[in-house]
Structures are given as structure tokens and as C-alpha cells.
Amino acid sequence: MSNQGNRTLTPTANSLADAIGHSEHRGMLARLTNHQTFWVFMAAVLACLALSLLTDTFATERNLFNVSRNFAFVAIIALGMTAVIASGGIDLSVGSAVVLSSMTVAVLMSAGMPFWIGIPAALAVAILLGAVNGVLVAYAGMPPFVVTLGMLSVGRSLAMVLSNNKMIYQFGPDHELLLALGGGSTMGLPNPLLVMVVLAAITGFLFKWTRWGQHLFAMGGNESAAKLTGIPVRQLKVSVYVFSALTAGITGVLEVGWLGGVTTNLGQGMELAVIAAAVIGGANLAGGVGTAFGAVVGALLIEVIRNSLILLGISTFWQGAFVGSFIVIAVAFDRFRSVRQQG
Amino acid sequence: MSALRLEAVSKHFGAIHALSDVSLLIEPGEVIGLMGDNGAGKSTLVKVIAGNFAPSAGEIFISDTKVEFHKPLDAQRAGIEVVYQDLAICDNLSAAANVFLGRELTKQIGPIPILDYARMRIRAGELFARLKSETRPRDLVKRMSGGQRQAVAIARALLSDAKIVLMDEPTAAISVRQVAEVLNLIRNLSDHGIAVVLVSHRMPDVFQVADTIAVLRRGRLVASKRAANSSPEEVTGLITGAIEFA
């Protein structure tokens, strides 16, 4: 059928399009250096090298252990945040999801509940918080910024109500187990780091190899197109906010074990570091772009810089300035690149 | 056998008669240029065919079978694909991903269905080859020309084995050279026996590609004749009302 009666009007002269096309298929190195993730990774490696030479405290086992654990907490939530940002949304409530889930596990276990009830309950609370975010965004059509900003306040307030704003540091019969989960290590590596690696692998798989991931990026790229092709965008949005809250919930449970106690200011301001990690790792705040590996690398760079400020004796008051500037610089970098591509 | 037959289709919104008594017959592989001034009812007619609006009166037949559409999905299942003016395409995905968006091919790894990129690329490549488009399945759509983007949108229609493709102003926002590409794509669809309803304001494009010209004026079909037997002057007259009927 395809060979008969082709009433071609004009020969398709695609030489220009071809030339453009060929220039896109450059060598491996050129493609690698075109990725923001690559440069961020190089920056993190350089920072590590510089710190090892400049200080004699950075490359110690104890410091590296701490850095890797701190970075794992931000990285785990950055995975969820990358999903939200790539879908075209934002989640400001992750810090509150952290404190609410850790407070849930703490309150239940200090009341004598076992480990295997406390943790699922904490994760369920986080999922519920994410579902409320998602339903308000997807079905009520409210802007994610407003919904999750509200949840930021509600979540922390609920944690205060739950604990009566007291610090909890006794976790009942399974006390040791909970502390070992977040604070211990397996094969010399801190547990949170291992959890982060597993979650990053799962997230990367979901993004690249499942219809869920494909639809998520399609929705972030062009939501009306996604709708027209029959993708269930509402359910998808709910699932994205649930995923984000779940990563925060997992972090909350692990942080209890690491700190050995919970106060209601846990995770305060964490959304900023997490968003910075995702954005530095290449997630585009306009939606449609982001990778799991990028989120991890972004979190790594932030933590290394933060650690270096401490080791170099710079006041911790400067940390907010650095993290905040990083977000702005990463977005500016992205703007600059897209302008250059168009021009 | 006709691809699409409308019999006395009317659509009114309250007192406003957007379409009155429109009867139209489209053969398989026929390209019909649907013309008319703004507000003449072109969009309404396209939306009735695409299942966005149910007609107030009249009947629609596809391949001589009477159909009733309650939602766009019904029309899609019956073999009608719409290529939207603002292109229902995601810039951040590859051409192949766009062609298969919402109906991705998967393979099972144990209990988990994973995307079958290889099969989607091959299949998309075949569709582009059928369209004689040089679009490469792996390329990101955001780096493509307007013509290539149209090829992606049209490949979606081919994938679903559409019998009728509705195109709303496909040449409105692209360069002259790309217009030629799109017109070629339309001819290719027609060569595959797919009927094309082309809504356009651009007289030269319509005359270059359409077998039949249909003109709507104030909700009525005032002409439906072979393009070869008509002329741009006549069609202009029909659109404006200078010529009553043809």
C-alpha cells in the first residue's frame, strides 16, 4: 500500500534540518559535558579534593561518615522532590512531613508499641499528608505552591499537638532497634546512605522504565497534551505528591534513629536544601526535566559545601546564604543555557 | 463505502445555530478542505466529528455504520484522530515517546511491566518512513522543525489506525518550507486510504492538497465541490457571501 500512487507535491528538502540533526549527535564526551549533572558532579569532586588538601579534618573516616549520612537525608527527599518538580509542581511541605512522620513513630513507640507498628504508621501518616496535597492540587485545581505552603504549617503544627511540643528520646521496647536503623551502619556504610542508594536506584528505574515515569515527564512537559492523549493526569498528580511525602516519611523515620530523639523543629527549613539539591541536580522548575542521579549529586554538592564551611571555620550563619544562592545560580544557569540554545 | 457521512447535522447552543443541516460525504483517502470565515461553524463541525459536542440533530456514519459519540474517546475508538492546532506534543520527550504517549508498549520483567523502548523506536521509525518524513525517533521534539513536529502528531494518527484525521489549521504557524512538508504528509495519509479533513484559512494550501472543498457560511454548508472545478475566487465569494451557493 505504501508504494503505490505517491502523489508527492515537492521533494522534501531537509538538508538544513539534517545539518541541525547531525550536530546533535556528537561524541560521547560532548554529550556528557552538556549535562548539568556532570558539572555538578565535577564540582563536588573538586570540592572534596580541595578540602582534603586544605584541611586535615575532611578526609577522616569520622567526618566522611557524617557527611555521607547527612547528605543521604537530603538526597532521599530530593528524589521525591525531583518527581514533583519534573511533573510541573513543587512541594514545600517535605520538612513538615519529616517531623510529622518521625513524631508519629516516636509517640507510638514511646507508648510501648513495637517497631513494626510504629514505622508503618509513620509512613502511612506521610502518605496521607501527600495524598491531601495531591488531591487539593489535582482535583481542586489549586496551585501546588499554596497547597504545600499551607501543609508546611499544618504538618508541623500537628507534630507539636501530637507530642505536646516535648522532646521524645525513649522509644519503648524496640528502642535499640529504631536507633540502629537510622544511626547504625552495615558493612561500614551508614544505613541512611544504603537506603538512599536503593531508593535512588528504584526512582531512576521508575523514571526511565515505567509508564508512570514517562507520564510524569509528559505531564511536566505539556500538561494539556498529556490530558489529550488520555493520561490520567489527576491520579498521576496525587501519586507524585504521595511519592514525595513518602520519601520525606522514610527520612523522618531514619532521622529519629540517627538523632536518638525528636523535637518539633526537626526538618525545619529542609525544603530549601531539598529543592536546591533537586534544582542543582538538573530538575527544571518549569517541569519536564530531572533525574534521580541528578538529585543525588545535587544533594552531595550541597552537603560537601556545607561541611566545608564548618571545617574551614566559617560561621554557620552563612549556610542559608550559600544554599539560597545555589538555587538562584542553578536556575540562572538553566535560563542562560536555554536562551543560548534558542539564539 | 464512505469514510464519513454526515446527514443533516445541526448543532445549536441555546438560540445560536452554530450548524444547520450540514450533510457531507467523505470517501476513504479523500482530502477535504473545510473553509469558512471566523464563526462560520468550522470548529463546531470538527468538534462534533471528534466527539467533543453531540449534535443537536442529524446522524453521523463511519464506514456506513451509524455512530454516536458521547466523548472524544468514543470518536477515537471509531477511528477518528484529531491533530490539534497547538499540537498535543511534549517538547521534552523524544519523537517515539510522543507517538506512543498514553499507549506505550511494555514488556514484562517478571511481574513488572517496563517500557519497551526498542520496539517503540522501530515502530515509530516505520511510521515516519511511511510518512516519508526524516524525523528520527530518538530525537527530542523540542529540537525539531514545525514540519517534523507535525509528522510526529500525524504518526500518532497512523499508529491508532485512524480512518479519518481531522487537522485544525496545521499550517498556520510554520514557515513556507515546512508548509510544503506538512502538505506532503497530508498527501501521504491520503495515499494510505485515510480521509483527511483539513480546516484552514490558507487558500493556496487548501487548493494544493484538497480533492474537495467544502465551504461553511453562518452554519450552513454552501458548497462541496471538487477542487479542480473550483477556484480561489469562487471560494472567496462563497466564504464572504458574494456567491450565494455552488
Automatic annotation (TrEMBL), chain A:
The chain crosses the membrane at residues 38-59, 71-90, 96-116, 189-207, 238-260, 272-302, 309-333. GO terms for molecular function: transmembrane transporter activity. Signal peptide: none annotated. It comes from the Bacteria. It is found in: Cell membrane. It holds the Pfam family BPD_transp_2. The keyword Phosphoprotein does not apply. It is a multi-pass membrane protein. Keywords: Cell inner membrane, Cell membrane, Membrane, Transmembrane, Transmembrane helix, Transport. This is ABC transporter permease.
UniProtKB/TrEMBL annotation, chain B:
It holds the Pfam family ABC_tran. It comes from the Bacteria. The keyword Secreted does not apply. The keyword Transmembrane does not apply. Residues 4-243 form the ABC transporter domain. GO terms for molecular function: ATP binding; ATP hydrolysis activity. Keywords: ATP-binding, Nucleotide-binding. SUPFAM superfamilies: P-loop containing nucleoside triphosphate hydrolases (SSF52540). Gene3D superfamilies: P-loop containing nucleotide triphosphate hydrolases. CDD domains: ABC_Carb_Monos_I (cd03216). Belongs to the ABC transporter superfamily. This is Sugar ABC transporter ATP-binding protein.
